[in-house]
Every structure is written in C-alpha cells, then in structure tokens.
Amino acid sequence: MAEPLDFEKPVFELEQKLEEVRHMAEEKHLDTTDMAAKLEEQILELKKQIYGNLTRWQRVQLSRHPERPYTLDYIQNICDEFHEFHGDRNFKDDKAIVGGLGKIGQQTVMVIGQQKGRDTKSRQYRNFGMPNPEGYRKALRLMKLAEKFGKPIICFIDTPGAFPGLEAEERGQGEAIAKNLMDMAVIEVPIICIVIGEGASGGALGIGIGNRIYQLENTWYSVISPESCSSILWRSWDHKQEAAEALKLTAEDNLELGIIDGIIPEPLGGAHQDPQEVYRNVREQIRKDIKYLKTKTPDKLVAHRIAKFSAMGVFEELPHEEHHGEATSNGSHKKASED
Amino acid sequence: MSWFKRVKEGILTRTEDKKETPDGMWYKCEECKQATPTRALEENCWVCPHCEYHKQIGSYEYFQLLFDGHEWRELDRDLISGNPLNFTDTKDYVSRIKATREKTNLNDAIRVAFGEVEGEELVVACMDFKFIGGSMGSVMGEKISRAIDFSLKYSVPLLVISKSGGARMMEGALSLMQMAKISAKLNLLSQQKIPYFSLMTDPTTGGVTASFAMLGDLNFAEPNALIGFAGPRVIKETIGKDLPEGFQRAEFLLEHGFLDFIVPRGELKAKLASLIRLFEK
C-alpha cells in the first residue's frame, strides 16, 4: 500500500481503525460487526465527500498515483493477446513508448502508449515516461503499419512530457512530434486516444491526434504542467495549486472546451482502487468506438480528424468599424472563407 | 494575379503602422556594441553591418522587407483572443491582452499578409515576439488556418515566419491543440501541391517548433537563430551540465539535418522568389 495523498489521510486513518477493529475481533473473539459496519459506512461517506469534491490539483495528484495502472497494464488486461514490437528502424528502441499488435475479441488493434515504471530501476528504464524523438518515430512507424493492414489504432497517453534532453534536441524532438501531428491526421484507419494519467503538452499530443479522444476521470491534459506553469508565470514553484486551477486541465474542463469527446469513469478514489473496473470501462468504450468508426471510409476518417482539430479554438472577431483603413483584410478573407 | 487589383495607388499601410525613422538616431548592436545610424541599419535589413547580428524585428518589418513596393494586404486582422479559461495569474488574461494590444498596436502575436515578392504572389504569416513572446493561442491557430485556406483558394504558396516562445499558457489545452490544428491542415496544402515554406527566426521554441515550424516543404532559418523544442534553461536543469557552444542555434540544426539552409536576412527576398519559381507548376 502506497502512502496516502495528503487529502486522503482521513480515509486512510478510518481504514486503519477498521482494520484494528477486525483484528481485535479475531484475536479476542468479540462481535464487532456493528462497529465495523458503522465504520465502513463512515468510510464510504467520507470517500464520497472527498473524492466527489476534488480540486484540480488533487486530480493531478491522483493522475500521478504510483499505483495507477500504466499502458502495459491496460494492454495486458484489455487485449486477449498482444505482441510488442520495437524500434524506430533508424536509431534505437525508446522504452518510454511501447507498441504492438493485439486482439480485442476478434478485432486486431495496434496499441501504442507512453510507459512509466513502478520502481526506481524501471522508472529509469522507462525514462519516467518521457519519450525521446525515436519514441515518436517508433509510434508513427507502427501507426503506418496498422494503416497498411487496415487495423484500428489505440493510443494510451501518460507522460509528464517529451524528454527535454541534449540528445533529444540533437535528434529533433520538435521535428519528431511535429511529423506525428501532421501524419496522424491523415492515417486512413480509426484512431482512438485515451489519456490514462498525465497528458503533458506536446509530448502527449505527439500520439494524440484521434477520431475519438477521451480522458479517464482523474487525469489531466494541458499545454504545461502546473509546476512549470507556476515557475514561469509566478516565478516560483509554490503556486502549482493555483496554476492547476487556472489551467483548467481536468477531463471535465476539456470536455467543456470541446477538446475531448468523453470522460471514462473511474472507481471512487481513483483507477488504482479497482483497476479491473477501469479496464472494463476502457475496453467497452474502445469496442463501441471501433464498431462505429469501422463503418466510415478512410476518406471520411481523415476528413473528420482534420475538421475536428480545425474547429478547436476560442477567439473573437472585432466589428470591422473598430479600425479605419483601406478595405484590406475584410474583403479578401471573406472570399477565402466562403467556401 | 487576376483577382488581385490594386485598390488605390500608392502606399496602403495604415498611418499608425508607419514607423518613420528620424535622422540622427543611432542603434547600438546588442552583440558587438557598435553604433550604427538607425537608417543605415534599416537599409541593411536590420542586420548589424559590423557583426552581422540579426536584430529581432516584427511582422511589419518583414512585410516591408519582402513585399514589392512595400505593399501588402493584411488578412484577418480583426481576430482577437477570447478568454476561454478566465485565466488569471498575476494579472487576468483579458487585461493582459488589452494592455498588450494597446502597447504594441497589434491584435495578436501573428499577422498574415498577401502580396508579391519579385512579382511572385505569396502569403506570409509572421509572428511578433513583442506580443506575449510570440505565444501561440487560438488566434494564431485560426489565422494560420485561414492563411492556409487562402493559399488553397488562390493557389498561392505560404511562408510562415516563426518567432515564438511556444504555446500560450493562458489558453491552456486550447493552445496545445493549435499545434494539431495547423499541422493537420497543412496536409491540405500538400494534397494540392502548394509549397509551404517555414522560416525560423530567433527564437523559435516549444510548441511552434514541435508543429508547423518543422513541417515546411523547406525549413530554413536566419543565422544564429535559437531553435529548439525545450528551452536551453530547462535542458541545462535536466542534465545538470552546461550546454555546448552553439547548441540549438540554426547552424547546429543545419548540421544535424533539420534545416535545408540558413539564409541571411538581406538575401531572403531574392531567395524566396527563386524558390517560388522553382516550385511553380
């Protein structure tokens, strides 16, 4: 059992108490059923109260919970079989991104995702889920393989960001992500993207151009992490909670902003409390979407993806009177946007 | 050229956009510290005649530098930021935008213009660093998106001149999605075989580098421009070592295979015109 997060401590304390009561009952052969039942009820109430009113920062904390399921956990529990493929055919195999073909029921799918580690050693091995350019290039290679053989693609997003290292820059981190954004848009098979943990910036988006985009309930997806945002805008690391609030980075926020298509529910307290329930929810969503998206022609899938992302953004258009000057912009842009 | 008729004779630049340089003003180079009369600097494309330092300039200067007769039509200048997140850090986003618009006389960090370069039609989308660090939010995404529509409609090549710290934090995930929006739409130019040129200037980093800046049919840069995904400070903190001399500079990117060439500002116009002619159908 991992250390409870700050805001979970009251629940943790009650759970310990319950444990003690049960232990006592066994040891001293006392009937503590009533007491235990009462405690259980209290715990549930407390959980509902705490987890039903999570702040954005608390969701960020849950998204990084060390016991949370990672990409390979999803793959193992959702796919009936899976074969991992390695390498970008150019430089090396990036361990921070995994991918391969598997089956969900009778349907072959390409599954790709960022992978974090669970202990110090595996965390280093996976580079904390921070891909290098070759990771993005491997992902794109596998997507093109899936496209060639008409297999739908599922991307699990879970990264604190693309790796900001010296070699990453030498090998073109920017170019690798950019190419994925452009090429993923025109892949002629269905693409479903699910944020299962952290969706940090370009490193997340690099495998995020889908026909369907989801977030699990306790995840975040934004342009920057609350910590980095705090350090840039407030010039200190201490404002991460305010930054999380300001960035509006939760699943609910992004659904409202039109960035994601839906929220996949998690059990009370987070995905790690009952991973099987989350796997079921994710698998069901994927099956439903593939069934629907498979009815679409390749042209439609591509057009849909381009139109979907083209529509993203919030801006205003000033009334033309506000500035004087020759009819410079107005006439011509109308011409361009009419069709 | 059939649709493009000069509405009025003479210069169409709005009066408030004009930047007359008074005689007798001097520019002290940020690099070599030598002084140059401002007018001479302007005539040298804002490049220091002593050390070739490329002074940071904005969209107005690039349009002046590129377009024949200093004439162009600005497209979609009326787009301004909304406030989708009600974002507040040390200042609220609306006030920040308002103050910046007043200070810079710009509506956002990018302007799009159409004109002719040595007689060749070109759409140019050029960033202004002084507008919140050239940051990319919804307005930049929409303006480039519409520039692409314009290029498609009239079969005119597109040049994007980047100068940006990356995505704009104050629009959160919406800013991030502008990377996807523009990159996805660039496919439409590719399908129609309309050339897209990307010029990276000092500095081009973050989400701009990790999207359309790196996606040109040709990618090129001004000498010594800083170009990267992560900023040098972040990388230095990550690796705990000093960065090698010239790291993330244009020459470094050229050497590592991410640029087609480096072009001094004084040669930009002629080079562009030649390229447009090379790609002509």
Protein architecture, described:
- The complex is a heterodimer of chains A (339) and B (281).
- Chain A is an alpha/beta fold and 339 residues long.
- Chain A folds into 2 domains: 6-53; 61-310, 2-enoyl-CoA Hydratase, Chain A, domain 1.
- Chain A has 15 helices and 9 strands.
- In chain A, strands 1, 2, 3, 4, 5, 6, 7 and 8 form an 8-stranded mixed sheet that branches.
- In chain A, α1 packs antiparallel against α2 (33-51), α6 runs parallel beside α8 and α10 (226-234) packs across α11 (240-247).
- The radius of gyration of chain A is 23 Å and the shape is globular.
- The N and C termini of chain A lie far apart (59 Å).
- Mean pLDDT of chain A is 93; it is low at 322-339.
- Chain B is an alpha/beta fold.
- Chain B has 2 domains: 25-55, no CATH class; 58-279, 2-enoyl-CoA Hydratase, Chain A, domain 1 (Alpha-Beta Complex).
- Helices cover 33% and strands 19% of the residues of chain B.
- Chain B has 8 helices and 11 strands.
- Chain B has helices at residues 38-43, 59-66, 93-104, 138-154, 172-191, 232-239, 250-255, 265-279, and strands at 26-28, 35-37, 73-75, 79-81, 110-117, 120-127, 158-164, 196-205, 218-221, 227-228, 261-262.
- In chain B, β5 and β6 (120-127) form a beta hairpin.
- Classes of the chains: A alpha/beta (339), B alpha/beta (281).
- Chains A and B meet through α7, α8, α9, α10 and α11 of A and β3, β4, α4, α5 and β10 of B.
